[in-house]
Amino acid sequence: MNSNNVENHENSDVAIEQRKINKEEGRGESPSISSFMCEICIDTKIEAENFSITGCSHSYCTDCVVNYVGSKLDDNMINIQCPVRRCGGFLELDGCREVLPKMIFDRWDKLLCEAAVVENESERFIYCPFKDCSALMIVDDDSPTESECPSCNRQICVSCETVWHHGSTCEEFGRTDNKYRVVMEVATKN
């Protein structure tokens, strides 16, 4: 009876292997094509879709890497670690160049550059106050109060870091009510 159980078990293993081969052939795949399992979506992917992170042994598909980087950037995180907890691996901008869409790559690059500027405490910087721009600008001590944003070309006040308030001082502009401020902002958008 024991020999029957061993024989049935061996036959079962052979049947499972045969089903795997048949399944692969049914999908048009060859058993010799190398594959891996993405540790994010837990899907079996072909090796050409494999993305490895510097400093770790985890593997992810390129689609998941794109989504992961995008979500981290949405959370304002620019130092992006491997998704596996307690892993010391980091994604690097240049290492992701081939898989990231240009828009995500450029966004990450811009955020890294801004972070480098912000870390430099010897320089003063401000953001353009216009919501559709928000460009980062370096301001030196010799900057005039009225300045032009190099990105959107609109006038801003460097002193109070807001839209240019022609004809009033920063103090006067700061005391004005919100209705007047909105009118000034709309007027300066032209």
Keywords:
190 residues; alpha+beta; Herpes Virus-1; 3-stranded antiparallel β-sheet; 6 helices; disordered N terminus
Provide an overview of this structure.
With 190 residues, the chain is an alpha+beta fold. It folds into two domains: 34-119, Herpes Virus-1 (2-Layer Sandwich), CATH 3.30.40; 122-190, no CATH class. Helices cover 41% and strands 15% of the residues. The chain is built from six helices and nine strands; from the N terminus they run αββββαααβββββαα. A three-stranded antiparallel beta sheet has the order 7-8-9. A hairpin with a 6-residue loop joins strand 3 and strand 4. The chain is elongated. Residues 1-12 have low confidence and may be disordered.
Structural class: alpha+beta
- The tally of domains stands at 2
How far do the termini sit from each other? Answer: 92 Å
- Enumerate how many helices there are, as a single number: 6
CATH superfamily of the largest domain: Zinc/RING finger domain, C3HC4 (zinc finger)
> Secondary-structure element order, as H and E?
HEEEEHHHEEEEEHH
SSE blueprint and pairings:
Layout: H1 2-26, E1 35-37, E2 44-46, E3 50-52, E4 59-61, H2 62-74, H3 93-96, H4 102-119, E5 124-127, E6 136-139, E7 146-148, E8 155-157, E9 162-163, H5 170-175, H6 178-188
Antiparallel strand pairs: 1-2, 3-4, 5-6, 7-8, 8-9
Domain RING-type: 34-190, 38-86
Function: Might act as an E3 ubiquitin-protein ligase, or as part of E3 complex, which accepts ubiquitin from specific E2 ubiquitin-conjugating enzymes and then transfers it to substrates.
Catalytic activity: [E2 ubiquitin-conjugating enzyme]-S-ubiquitinyl-L-cysteine + [acceptor protein]-L-lysine = [E2 ubiquitin-conjugating enzyme]-L-cysteine + [acceptor protein]-N(6)-ubiquitinyl-L-lysine
